[in-house]
Amino acid sequence: MKLHAEPGRVLGKRDPMIYGHFIEHFHRQIYGGVYDPGNPLSDEEGFRTDVLEAMRRIKVPVLRWPGGCFVSAYHWKEGVGKERIPHFDKAWRVEEPNTFGTDEYIRLCRKLGCEPYICTNAGTGTAEEMSDWVEYCNLPSEGRYAKWRIANGYTEPHRVKYWSVGNENYGSWEMGSKTPEQWGMLTCEAAKMMKRVDPSTELSAAALTDIDWNVNLLKNCGKYLDWMSIHEYWDPIHETNDYADYEASMAYTADIGHSVRKVRGLLEAMGLEKQIRIAFDEWNLRQWYHPMIMDVDQQGLTKEEYLYPRDENDDNTKYTMADAVFTACFLNMCNRNCDIVGMANFAPIVNTRGCICTHKDGIVLRSTYHVFDLYVNYLGDVVLDTWEEENPVKLLRAASGEKTEVELLDVLVTSFSDRAGYAVAAVNKDAGETQTLTLDLPGCGAVTLDYISGNSTESYNDVDHEEVAIEHEELGTYRQGMQITLRPHSVNIIRIGC
Ligand code: AHR
Q1: Ligand 1 in contact with 291 (CB < 6 A)?
Q2: Helix (H) or strand (E) run with residue 305 in it
Q3: Which residue of 67, 159, 186, 415 has the fewest CB atoms within a 10 Å radius of its CB?
Q4: 34-76 confidence digits (pLDDT tens)
Q5: Is 69 in the pocket of ligand 1 (CB under 6 A)?
Q6: 3 state SS of 438
Q7: Is the dihedral of CA 457, 461, 466, 472 positive or negative?
């Protein structure tokens, strides 16, 4: 494929928050994940220092919390103060100890240097409870909740800028699910009260690509919103754990930006595209595995049916180059749509399907972790328009069994707002063949290649087993028309000096 780009054809400057993350009170994400008091690897506050270091290395810009389904029956007041009352979490049918609450979460964000992003309970909660949470976090001292925060030892406000009204309240699986009409009204009242407490907050609300849901939301609440929250998981494994293979995973990339197209169209139709941006605040190639819990009529009777299977999310052999290649294609899509996609939160970051997996003696950096390392630390912040010649295509068998035409290369060109040079993200989805990329862009200086490919499409990392890591090559001096060989199933960052 021949790739053309010019420095003057700029699509935009990507928001760093498209490399954001999500963490939920589910399985081992919080307890035994990032928060592990008593573990020798944890600091004096109970946070895993090895996890913190890995999260800092990929410069986590924003961390969404506490859910996810969990939040839709979560009452934040049980998770602050000296007395923490355990509650039964109806979303996941486990006891929540409430020892990790708002203040612990804020301390975590401060240690990471990232923005907090709190998702509120619009399931069983009320507009008042949501706005009380904003009082607790953001008012200097007025009212009982700010005074409660001060009494808990936090004189300064937590200054939480990003808030979401609700999670997936459109779904029957969610505690307190809503009809489109109910949703429009509730979000309006909640947003009104939250903005009354702190007008500087930026609010999102659970949205879909469904027109009716979104029209009701935007008609009722559009004036208060800064973001629309979109969730997307492509491989539906939460009941079966039956993974789409590499070929089918690549087939999912065929129209990876369809949600952005639909939501952008609706925002433009309603004249809101300059006010509201898209937050993909949960996304991952694959769903999380948690059988016999999401379906109202199909609740597991025994823990063997609905609880213990969640441990299978910890099987590191199941996080391969399919996850890494797909993740890179999704991040390319977010960059290309940086005019309207301002945030994306990989779901989740620690354990379950996260890019970091903890065990009692350390962590495993899964294949997707290295994609974030490449994109955050090697790519530029200015996204250039490109045009391509002869992108090779293949007919791939989708999970449905149908054949889908898929372009084998997914390429993004970036430059830097603070220096000369380019960084090209080039993904080769082909399972077995190398592909050649011919560069037609004005450049000069040294050319380097940093990439991950593994030994096969099934390569993975585990304790004492590493197949996927960033490798580096020096490719000499840049010349127009330079050809770069891209390994099969690889994610590549090509940097051109000037
Ligand atoms: O599988 C995890 C769940 O997926 C999250 O809690 C929810 O937001 C989404 O449906």
Answers
A1: no
A2: helix 303-306
A3: 159
A4: 999 999 999 999 999 999 999 999 999 999 999 999 999 999 9
A5: yes
A6: strand
A7: positive
Residue of 168, 232, 284, 353 to test ligand 1 pocket, by largest number of atoms within 8 Å of CB: 168
Query: What atom of ligand 1 comes closest to residue 287's alpha carbon?
Result: 1
CA–centroid distance, 294 to ligand 1, in Å, is 9
**Tokens at residue 142, please?**
């007025």
Q: Whose CA is nearest to atom 1 of ligand 1?
A: 288
Quick: pLDDT tens for 188-211. 999 999 999 999 999 999 988 788
Q: Which atom of ligand 1 is nearest to the CA of 70?
A: 6
Domain residue ranges in the chain: 2-8+383-496, 13-378
Whether ligand 1 lies within 6 angstroms of the CB of 67 is answered as yes
Say which residues have a Cβ less than 8 Å from residue 224's Cβ, sequence separation at least 6: 187, 188, 191, 192, 195, 203
Domain 2-8+383-496: assigned CATH number: 2.60.40.1180
Hey, which of 287, 293, 312, 350 would you mutate to test ligand 1's pocket, going by the most ligand atoms within 8 Å of its Cβ?
A: 287
Measured CA to CA, the distance from residue 233 to residue 326 in angstroms comes to 11
Q: For residue 416, name the pLDDT band (cuts at 50, 70, 90).
A: very high
pLDDT at 296: 84
Contact indicator for 346, 368 with CB cutoff of 8 Å: yes
d(CA 117, CA 281): 10
Any ligand 1 atom below 6 A from CB of 174: no
Identify the DSSP state of 457: T
Taking the whole predicted model, whether its pTM rises above 0.90 is answered as: yes
Give the strands of the sheet with 2-13, arranged side by side: 471-477, 446-452, 490-496, 419-428, 409-416, 382-389, 2-13, 435-440, 482-486
Amino acid identity, residue 331?
A: L
**Residue having the nearest C-alpha atom to atom 4 of ligand 1:** 68
- Cα separation, 333 vs 14, in Å, equals 11
AA identity, residue 137: C
